[in-house]
């Protein structure tokens, strides 16, 4: 079974890069440019969610807190992404399983996703 990754990012270029990189790593990738996808996230049944902190009107940290407080969804790993200097503390406070600081290294992204899904195939240098 191929793991399903949902990527929520409002920057189209970053969204396209993440989709390409994760598909090349063997994942099924579903993308969204805003948090409206979370209204039906249970139907998508993702194995992991990557979400940007700044999504226009919404914050990824608020979305993460909501996901982690929903019994049926709290098991899904959530990775918060941001260029914010305090992304580590933001991620910790909202219950994110990991964070990715922008600009990110592609190997770091695949390593974190692989680690959270338990299928690391390589270790980034």
TrEMBL record:
Matching entries from SUPFAM superfamilies are given as: CheY-like (SSF52172)
For the modification 4-aspartylphosphate, the affected residues are 52
The Response regulatory domain covers which part of the protein? 4-117
Keywords from UniProt, A to Z, are: Phosphoprotein
Q: Does the keyword Phosphoprotein apply?
A: yes
InterPro entries given in the database record: Bact_response_regulator (IPR050595), CheY-like_superfamily (IPR011006), Sig_transdc_resp-reg_receiver (IPR001789)
Pfam families (alphabetical)? Response_reg
List the PROSITE patterns hit by this protein, alphabetically.
RESPONSE_REGULATORY
Q: What name goes with this protein?
A: Response regulatory domain-containing protein
């Amino acid at each position: 079974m191929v793991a399903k990754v949902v990527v929520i990012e409002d920057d189209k270029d970053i969204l396209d890069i993440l989709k390409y990189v994760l598909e090349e790593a063997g994942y099924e990738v579903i993308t969204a440019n805003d948090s409206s996808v979370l209204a039906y996230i249970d139907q998508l049944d993702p194995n992991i969610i990557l979400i940007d902190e700044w999504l226009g009107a919404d914050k990824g940290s608020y979305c993460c807190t909501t996901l982690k407080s929903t019994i049926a969804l709290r098991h899904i790993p959530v990775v918060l992404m941001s260029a914010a200097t305090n992304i580590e503390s933001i991620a910790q406070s909202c219950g994110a399983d990991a964070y990715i600081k922008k600009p990110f290294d592609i190997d770091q992204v695949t390593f974190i996703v692989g680690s959270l899904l338990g299928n690391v195939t390589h270790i980034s240098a």
